[in-house]
Design a protein that fits this description.
Number of strands: 4
Order of helices and strands: HHHEEEEHH
Strand content: 5-15%
Helix content: 55-70%
Shape: elongated
Structural class: mainly alpha
Strand order of the largest sheet: 1-4
Number of helices: 5
């Protein structure tokens, strides 16, 4: 007859309960810390990949002022905001740079930056979480 032995389940449940009880303001601070890293990285990678004819598009990359909430959880938006001197939306210019168009190859600076920033974002968010945990 087979048997199943589980150890450590109590600890895991306690940890999951603590995570579920992180206050929204701490989560917002974590999101903001991570977003700051992503914004900086997208601008840096954009320069490296040649997305800087005038610099307007890269300078327009910002995080939203407020975090949002859906049924899936909390989030913060990061995107090129506003319009350039020609009246084109900076998000549209960034999209064309990201995916390319006829006669212009793709320069996926946002995706590349997001991938490169992963560990740094995790560290920035973990630092905020650790500071909160130590203050408890």
């Amino acid at each position: 007859m087979a048997s199943l032995n589980i150890t450590g389940l109590g600890e895991t449940l306690t940890t999951m309960e603590k995570i579920a009880n992180i206050p929204d303001n701490v989560i917002d601070s974590m999101l903001n810390a991570g977003a700051d890293v992503v914004v900086k990285k997208q601008k840096k990678v954009g320069l490296r990949m040649g997305v800087h004819k005038t610099g307007v598009t890269l300078d327009s990359i910002k995080k939203s002022q407020k975090t949002g909430k859906t049924s899936a959880g909390r989030y913060i938006d990061i995107y090129p905001q506003g319009k350039n001197a020609d009246g084109n939306r900076n998000a549209e210019v960034a999209f064309i740079n990201e995916y390319g168009k006829e006669e212009q190859p793709a320069r996926p600076f946002m995706r590349t930056a997001n991938e490169e920033a992963e560990a740094e974002v995790t560290d920035a968010e973990a630092e905020v979480l650790q500071d909160w945990q130590e203050s408890q």
